[in-house]
Structures are given as C-alpha cells and as structure tokens.
Amino acid sequence: MSASSLPQYDLCFADGSRWVIAAADALAAVTVERLAAVMMLPAHTAGSRRLWVTADETIVFPAGDAVYTLPPLPPHLQDYVYFTGVSLAIARQAQTNGAVLLHGALAAYEQAGGVILAASGGTGKTTASGRFPPPWRSLCDDTTLVVCDAAGQFWAHPWPTWSRFLDDGVGGVWDTLHGVPLRALFFLKRCESDRVEPVGRGQAVTLLVQTAEQACRLMDRDQPIEVRRAAWLERFDNLRALAQAIPTFVLHISLEGAFWLEIEKAIHD
Fold it and tell me: What is the CATH number of domain 100-268?
C-alpha cells in the first residue's frame, strides 16, 4: 500500500494552526482511521505539517514532521494507549505555538464562551459536567486543549476521555475542532454550599501547573532529561500567559446545589 493511499486527516485549531494526522503504514492506518472518527476529523485536503503515525521504525520521515511510533501491545490495550499517545504528540506540537493541555472539563454557555472545570481525579468534574442545564453545553468531561491566537485570545478545544477506551470500554466521540473562547477557569473544591472565590495570578499559575502536569505527565517520558526540562519550561511559560489573561477561581461545589449560577455570576462580572 503506497503512502498516498493511506488515510490522512486534518486537525485545525482556533489559533490558526493546522496539522495532518497521517498513517505511514497499513498497521497504523487502522489506528488513524479510528482516532479520526473519535475526534471528528475531516479527510485531509491541503498542505500543513504532518504528524506521522507508524508501526514501522525503519521508515525515514521528512525533516520537521513529527512522528509517533505505535508500540506492540495486546488488542485490549491498543485503542487506549495508541489514542493517548497520538493525542499527546499532537498536544506536544501545539505547545510550541503557546497551547497547553489541561486536566479539566469544558462547558460552553450560550454565546458567552466556555469555562474549564479543573480538578484531580475523583474530585467530581465529570459529575459536575453532567449536571449543567441548558443553555449550558458540556463539551468534554476530562481534558481540554487551550490554544492562543495571534491576538492573544485563548480558545478551548474539547479533548476525548481516553480512559473510556480502556479494555474495550464504551468509547465516544468529541468535536475537537470546535474551539470556544475561554472566559474563565474554575478549580473545584467540594463544599456544603456553592460559592466562587477569586484566585490571584500567582496562585493561578500554581494551580494550572498542577492540572497541566496531570494531563501531560506521559508527554515526554521517553525523552532525555534536557528535552523534558525544555518542554516543562515551555509549558510553564504558556501557563503563566494563560493565568495573566484568563480570570481564575476556586469553585466551592456542593452535591446538589445550582453551582452553574455561581459560574454565570463570575463570568458576567
């Protein structure tokens, strides 16, 4: 099978960056096609830098292109590990343009833009995502990619919940091309009543570093220490810019209260 006949899909972000997710061999084609369906990617039409997905370590790729090599795995782990690996490779390349991957759910409110609910696992962001009433829309419940355009506007793109593909899980689809203007960041804290507490920029950076590390901890694990350090510093600079531009809050959230009303007050104020 020739490279020109293998599947390729476009991935475009709200900052204007464009990527092509391309299979380099027949084995990788299965993963790329399934991944494109999950992320709702259109078939490739023109130009742009490529992220090659391959199971063949002998292939030499053009300089400047990114590569993700599929490790040999049993079938029940392949979707989860491969999808996670490719998406981290995408996020790593996007990071060079000012983007950052956050461990947080994304919800949009009418035309006002989106908010991220950030929290460590088990804190309740997935449950909170399912509680938003109309006109709120939950776009994803686990991870969000934030990008910054040339005008300094931050946009949030929903990212798949890859754990749903572990051990032949329920899976799902996410419209990853649908970026929304990011209005605010909320860090969840369980409480008896709902209220919002503003966070200073210094504390916001600290909280953002923690939630980014949860999302990116496997991003450069096989790279030399100097590469990992450079990636961390790059990510820190992106997070610092995000904290400067986007209001950040702690959202004290109860099990049954209308917490979204507190969010609406915060973003309108």
Answer: 3.90.228.20
